Amino acid sequence: MTGTETVAGTVAEETAAEETAAEETVVEAGVTPAVWAGLMLDCPDARELATFYGELTGWGVGGADDEGAWAYLTPPGTTLTFGFQRVADYRPPRWPDQEVPQQFHLDFRVADLPAAIRRAEELGATQAEFQPGGERWRVLLDPAGHPFCLCPPAPH
Fold this sequence. Notes:
The chain is of the alpha/beta class and about 160 residues long. It is built from 3 helices and 8 strands, in the order H-E-H-E-E-E-E-H-E-E-E.
């Protein structure tokens, strides 16, 4: 058996266990719970922003229309979608100012914070002026102005 088969087997076993737990929840509660499918980000050009995050995460773009109205990524090993939708008259968040609030932000763990910051900037991100984490983590703005954080590995 190869390492890939071992990992795939483990993922399949974990998925089966999660499905069994979800089924038990349905039976016990008598109500089907909502299952998180993904999230959508508003932006001026969906393909452009999907390309940015696809390159940043290494997930690539899973699908997009030719006009930039919608696009999505799917993190490996999941059925979740990280989607993007074009919005007319899009106004980027003004972080940390609340004139146009951020409403959400994304956090990404990275092995090498300085290298990840450089890569994000090469892809079109900019560092936010206000940095509440100091040097512990960095707040950046994606090409559409959404704030996101690059964070070091979780402590063990």
